[in-house]
Amino acid sequence: xAAGSGTSAGGRTRTPFPALLADTAVRALREExxxxxTPGLVDRRGGGAHDxxxxxxxxxxxxxxxxxxxxxxxxxxxxxxxxxLREELGGLGRMGERAMLRVTGGVNTHRGxxxxxxxxxxxxxxxAGDERAAARAAARLAALPDRWAPAGTPSHGERVRRRxxxxxxxxxxxxxxxHVTEVALPRLRRARAAxxxxxxxxxxxxxxxxxxxxxxxxxxRGGPDGxxxxxxxxxxxxxxxxxxxxxxxxxxxxxxxxLRRRRLSPGGxxxxxxxxxxxxxxxxxxxxxxxxxxxxxxxx
Length: 300
Ligand SMILES: CC(C)(COP(=O)(O)OP(=O)(O)OC[C@H]1O[C@@H](n2cnc3c(N)ncnc32)[C@H](O[C@H]2O[C@H](COP(=O)(O)OP(=O)(O)OP(=O)(O)O)[C@@H](O)[C@H]2O)[C@@H]1O)[C@@H](O)C(=O)NCCC(=O)NCCS
Ligand SMILES: Nc1ncnc2[nH]cnc12
Description:
This protein has a two-stranded antiparallel ribbon with strand order 1-2. It has helices at about 15-35, 55-65, 65-80, 85-105, 110-125, 130-145, 155-165, 170-175, 180-195, 200-210, 215-240, 245-260, 265-280, 290-295; strands spanning about 5, 15. The chain has a single domain (about 15-145, about 165-295), classed as Triphosphoribosyl-dephospho-CoA protein (Orthogonal Bundle), CATH 1.10.4200. Strand 1 and strand 2 (about 15) form a beta hairpin. By secondary structure, the chain is an all-alpha fold. Helix 9 runs antiparallel to helix 10 (about 200-210). The protein contains 14 helices and two strands. It comes from Microbispora corallina.
């Protein structure tokens, strides 16, 4: 879908591109939250493996991130993709995290999603013309330094990186989101082309990501054995035919019950499914060669 901003020929006001991108990002988060039954995750049925989250909380959290997504897009529209922009995005990302924690009463609902979607929103706003170009541009941004990133207490991701050497959310972004472009999006499209219902296509995309991802949420709570079991369990659902078959559905429900008992939540996979839904629906507005020539140059 092509998109722009300002006033159309007929004089009607069009939604500004940053607001359109923020809408698409929030919608992707909402759709991921509504998807059911998702193993161990919050969904329409309840909080999954979480005793501090439910669907209304995730929906409120998604809405609280809208201003951050819009401001991220605005910054990327006006600033070249170099360290200055990376640092501005870091500040906006941390502001978004504070807004999220305010509405959730301190629960980390969407930190990883804000990171992945924030980088992809910036990439599309900065002129990426398709999903692969967006993932590559997001990777370049992720790899830039942010001198204002607070040292503070190590995050869960940082702890398991030190302990087990796992890559985590930063590494996945720097690798240009292969689980999104090479796994989730192709799986979504193959399932749709085969006539599967949209919900089944999304569940299969999630399960395939789960079967491959080093999810630091799972590693933090379940260690390497927990992560191995989650990946094998998700792989088994797919080997049984996926969420749309009787055997695959039974395997999914079994995996869900096991994750709830072990209090393991594949939150990183949920974030990457939301990233795939964002790219799948993104409004593209590749910059014209003239706009690229006139884009502000890197100052550092
Ligand atoms: C680079 C950052 C993402 C920070 O990364 P780091 O790994 O240091 O920090 P974490 O706080 O651990 O957050 C990473 C979140 O990313 C998700 N995730 C996990 N593994 C992967 C993966 N392999 N690939 C992609 N994404 C992954 C995951 O998010 C989900 O889980 C969250 C709940 O996690 P947690 O708090 O650990 O949950 P609980 O176990 O429930 O906690 P307790 O109840 O037990 O206390 C949830 O948010 C999901 O979204 C990881 O949690 C980045 O955030 C950063 O540097 N931000 C600064 C701002 C910035 O620069 N922004 C720029 C662009 S906007
Ligand atoms: N549906 C979900 N359940 C739990 N954590 C999540 N983080 C992002 N989406 C989530």
